[in-house]
Amino acid sequence: MSLAWQHFQPASDTFQGNIMMVTGAGRGIGRELSLTLARHGARVILCGRTQKHLESLYDQIMAEQLPEPLILPLDLNKLSQAECDQVSQAIEQQFGHLDALIHNASELGPLTSLSNYPISTYDQLMQVNVRAALMLTQGLMPLLLQAKSGRLLFTSSSVGRQGRAFWGGYSISKFATEGMMQIFADELENISQVRVMAINPGATRTEMRARAYPAENPGQLKTPSELMPCYLYALSAAGSQWHGQTIDAQPR
Ligand code: NAP
User: 146 lies in which domain range?
Assistant: First the structure.
């Protein structure tokens, strides 16, 4: 069965004038998403840890003569309240609102039994995958509420709905992400236009997937660009009925 969004191809000006922030924008799915949003008219705030990855994406977007993005280097492992406040103030001063906040950055951590999972690594993973997403959302919520139709998008995983042996802290962090998404959705339901949802990309050809499944042939996996109809649908007016739910970008 084909779903409405699977072949979604919105007009190239769909997000014209929109300000959209993507974490983990430098590589993998976040990079493809940032480029795709720029190709649909958005000014994208490219948030990531490694400046050179963000700069090469900036150059690509400019080479295609798309709306100029902003580079926001942030190591989510060290994210402070002061940095969240600075980011919020900078976006407020420059744009007055934020149309979309897309939490895409994540770390995988070690794939090992939970009984032996190193607690210091667990703390770091929860910091990047969960705590930083909460801090950024808290800091940027006033700007999302100022948008005409704000979007708060989280990134889940199949191991965020069904625990699986050896997926350790990553799996726990994705369960927490699902919970955070549902709570924000419930809290915002009747008091705002902000739509809150998560996307589970499913097996996708990126460095994270290659690290989790080193023996797999990446050629058999979907590419990040094949996920884009789902993301575009979620972030556009077409997806405004999606709220409080996790969408599988690669439905079975
Ligand atoms: P990826 O290729 O490993 O890219 C991860 C991105 O997150 C990179 O841009 C990286 O920045 C950023 N990041 C990691 N740690 C960071 C930190 N401490 N501070 C700031 N940024 C940080 O991963 P991906 O496969 O594209 O995954 C994207 C999302 O999809 C993740 O949430 C992942 O859990 C989810 N997902 C992926 C799959 C899959 O099969 N690929 C399946 C299910 C869910 P740098 O450029 O600085 O390294």
Answer: 15-248
Q: Is residue 10 part of a domain?
A: no
Number of domains in the chain: 1
49 lines ligand 1 (CB under 6 A): yes
Q: Is 43 in the pocket of ligand 1 (CB under 6 A)?
A: no
Q: Could you confirm whether 170 is annotated as catalytic?
A: yes
Contact 87, 61 (CB under 8 A): no
| Domain-embedded: residue 3 | no
**What's the CA-to-centroid distance between 191 and ligand 1, angstroms?**
32
DSSP for 83-150 reads HHHHHHHHHHHHTS--SEEE-----------GGG--HHHHHHHHIIIIIHHHHHHHHHHHHHHHSSS-
C-beta of 36 in contact with ligand 1 (< 6 A): no
User: Looking at 58, 117, 122, 170, which residue is catalytic?
Assistant: 170
Atom of ligand 1 nearest to the CA of 158: 43
Which CATH number goes with the domain that contains 93?
A: 3.40.50.720
Residue 233 falls inside a structural domain: yes
User: Has residue 188 been placed in a domain?
Assistant: yes
- This prediction's pTM: 0.98
Q: What is the pLDDT along the chain (252 residues), one digit of tens a residue?
A: 568 889 899 999 999 999 999 999 999 999 999 999 999 999 999 999 999 999 999 999 999 999 999 999 999 999 999 999 999 999 999 999 999 999 999 999 999 999 999 999 999 999 999 999 999 999 999 999 999 999 999 999 999 999 999 999 999 999 999 999 999 999 999 999 999 999 999 999 999 999 999 999 999 999 999 999 999 999 999 999 999 999 999 887
